[in-house]
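quick one: iron/sulfur cluster bound model?
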Amino acid sequence: MITGTVFDIKEMTVHDGPGSRVTVFLKGCPLRCLWCHNPEGLSPEPQLMIKENLCEKCGLCLRGCTHNECRPFGRCLHACPKGLVTVAGIEYTPKQLAERLMKYRDFLNKVGGGITFSGGEPLLQAEFMLETLKYIKGIHIALQTSGYCESDVFKEALKRVDYVLYDIKLADTDEHIKYTGVDNRLILENYKILAESGKPFVVRTPLIPGITDTQENLSAISQIVGDNRVEIMRYNHFAPSKYKMVGLEFNLPDLPSNEVDLSVFKNAIML
Ligand code: SF4
Ligand code: SF4
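yep, here:
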């Protein structure tokens, strides 16, 4: 049976597609953007999250326990008196996730919103996502994606969603490899497929100081997107705090911001 791993479900998100939405974060991403603000979404596997900065090293969570759910993690998930130990990543069958999401249907339809599949990169779990969508009826569905997936998979996903939020972070291939760990040519090919598909979409570009916020990069992205709508996302300065919780280091260089001139775009807004 297919199962999928979800690391968060957020209610009433307002920047993840039209209207108020419920955003489902699927775990796992093939990119490694240095500025990623969801480090707990990078690995496809469930993983421990520990608020080390508040830990008093009392050792209670390390004493061993008999709970089945704690076994894979080498710590008791229930022992910490301060609740500092959690797991990012819950496994669902498509039916279980759909049943949970369908509970929001009436409300989301009333407020003109919907459900957004995000991540991580949701198309890393495309089979699970598409199977889940078979059980979700009568709700507007958006996909928030890096566009980094096989084009056949992307086309299949396009048939099943109503709206796409598509990241174009860096136009230059070498820069893209340097800062996200992957080549952007597949992303740009899939962007063409999206732009020609007739599916409503928005391009999203994060403003990362000294990296994506250069006029050179923004001008090059404006050439790629033409008249299509672009949302320029301000940088989230809270990203570093979550890295330690999953045992990762935050390695984004501390570069000065550039003055941003959005007039290079025909149809852009700043979020
Ligand atoms: S139980 Fe909580 S405070 Fe004690 S060592 Fe574990 S995480 Fe730290
Ligand atoms: S594509 Fe998104 S989730 Fe993946 S590493 Fe980049 S910012 Fe993080």
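The longest strand covers residues 4-13.
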